[in-house]
């Protein structure tokens, strides 16, 4: 079980962070770090470091289905990152 970093770009709509966290919880992810920044035009960047026993691709497929999610990038995370 390795650490992965997800970078999620989404519209800053009421409840979007809660919906993202709910999907991660239901898919068995364990968040170890989270950072959110507001960008221009009511767009947010959410960086999440998490560990999961399931493939990260399955989680990404579920997250991209959320209406306000625009894009998701992932990469393996290391402490030297």
From TrEMBL:
Matching Pfam families: ACT_5
Domain ACT: residue ranges: 5-77
Alphabetized GO MF terms: acetolactate synthase activity
Keywords associated with the record: Transferase
Domain of life the protein comes from: Bacteria
SUPFAM superfamilies in alphabetical order: ACT-like (SSF55021)
InterPro entries, per the entry: ACT-like_dom_sf (IPR045865), ACT_dom (IPR002912)
Enzyme class: transferase
EC id: 2.2.1.6
Protein name (database record): Acetolactate synthase 2 small subunit
Native organism: Candidatus Schmidhempelia bombi str. Bimp
Originating gene: ilvM
């Amino acid at each position: 079980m390795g650490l992965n970093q997800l970078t999620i770009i989404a519209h800053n709509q009421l409840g979007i962070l809660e919906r993202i966290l709910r999907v991660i919880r239901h898919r068995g992810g364990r968040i170890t770090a989270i950072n959110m920044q507001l960008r221009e035009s009511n767009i947010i960047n959410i960086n999440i470091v998490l560990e999961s026993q399931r493939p990260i691709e399955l989680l990404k497929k579920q997250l991209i289905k959320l209406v306000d999610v625009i894009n998701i990038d992932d990469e393996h995370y290391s402490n030297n990152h």
